[in-house]
Specification:
Length: 376
């Protein structure tokens, strides 16, 4: 990534802090140089001919204020991810890039149904990505990093294959797939449209996260929770529409929360926020157009289970380090706050409880070690 800033909080380089990435799209994580190479091999037209120009094109095209426009950039990334070889390469590189950024556990989500134009079956696509993930883990280890990765198999909410994709996810639950998601244009495509898939997943005790509260409001979140039995909300920032700020008195903010907001808060349902992406897609437009306008801090101060994520590293030209630094800079957070966000993510990972506890220990130890190293 091309950043000019050093990302320090309390004198500690955020890059070295152990991190958990819950919301990261595989087809939004490609390296620009990889796109150029794969596109040239396949004869696919690209909007720029060098890495830096292509990087800028993705960021500028994604900064549209509309999720629908934002999603159009994926036509290019998906076009170069239609063979097993290419899927494996993209997954491998994505894992290595996460590891170098300090991520110790990540969940990569992607929609296999969008990668079948050159003859792959759904199962072959999932297997190709898993090969890449395992290769990426090995490559990261050779570079001195330790990382674990799970796949989140995603169905497109505007299509009609969700039950088939849910069955695919469960079929591969012992081969790297840890959860299920629906994604794509949110407005007009509620989770209730996919009731059969969610009924099946509930019967199979298979965890679900659902994109909701990004391009649609409270009704979408309600459907994700009621129809989808979602344990986490992809973005979920428009839950703030159910919170009325009545006034402030010094450092105290007085609010009234609706029943939906109370339910999400009291049940610890995780919000997978992605600050830069939420600005780009207009998800927080009703509150403003700057990171300081993001309702993240309001949700955090009220005790919601908030996490910080990248969504799409390519489209937002970002890393998890940068996203954490952005919220820290915007809301004057310290390392204790950043650790809270990572512990929230660790507790929300689609892993057995013992493995989540291990992540929590790694985070605690890693933050202590980073502070000690910075003081030497």
């Amino acid at each position: 990534m091309s950043f000019e800033n050093d990302f320090y909080v309390d004198g500690v380089d955020v890059t070295v802090l152990p991190k958990i990435s819950l919301h990261d799209h595989l087809d939004g994580s490609l390296r620009p140089e990889t796109i150029l190479e794969l596109a040239a091999e396949a004869g696919i037209a690209v909007p720029a001919t060098d890495e830096e120009s292509l990087r800028r094109w993705f960021a500028e095209s994604s900064n549209s204020g509309s999720l629908v426009e934002y999603l159009k950039t994926f036509d290019l990334t998906c076009a170069v991810m239609q063979t097993a070889e290419n899927l494996t390469r993209v997954a491998r590189e994505s894992v290595v890039d996460l590891a170098v950024d300090g991520v110790i556990y990540g969940e990569l989500r992607w929609a296999p149904e969008q990668h079948l134009t050159q003859g792959l079956t759904l199962d072959e696509a999932v297997e190709a990505v898993q090969v890449g993930i395992e290769e990426g883990i090995d490559e990261a280890e050779e570079l001195g990093y330790s990382i674990r990765i799970g796949q989140l198999v995603t169905a497109m909410r505007h299509a009609d294959r969700s039950l088939e994709i849910a069955q695919l996810a469960v079929r591969h639950r012992t081969n790297g797939v840890v959860g299920f998601d629906i994604a794509g244009a949110e407005l007009g495509f509620p989770a209730s449209n996919h009731a059969a898939a969610f009924d099946f997943l509930a019967h199979e005790y298979f965890p679900v996260t659902i994109h909701a509260g990004e391009a649609d409001g409270l009704g979408s979140i309600e459907s994700a929770l009621y129809d989808g039995r979602a344990l986490r909300l992809g973005h979920g920032v428009r839950l703030a529409e159910d919170i009325d700020v009545n006034g402030k008195d010094g450092d105290a903010t007085y609010v009234t929360m609706g029943m939906l907001a109370h339910w999400v808060k009291d049940r610890g349902i995780t919000l997978e926020t992605s600050p830069t992406s939420n600005l780009q897609t207009g998800a927080i437009a009703q509150w403003g157009d700057d990171i300081t306008d993001h309702p993240f801090d309001l949700l955090y101060q009220l005790g919601f289970t908030v996490t910080v994520n990248t969504d799409n590293r390519l489209q937002s030209d970002t890393t998890l380090t940068r996203e954490l630094w952005l919220v820290a800079d915007a809301f004057s957070y310290d390392l204790a706050d950043l650790e809270t966000f990572q512990q929230n993510a660790a507790a929300s990972a689609f892993l057995p409880s013992e493995e989540r506890d291990e992540l929590a220990e790694l985070i605690s130890d890693g933050f202590v070690a980073a502070v000690a190293a910075a003081r030497r």
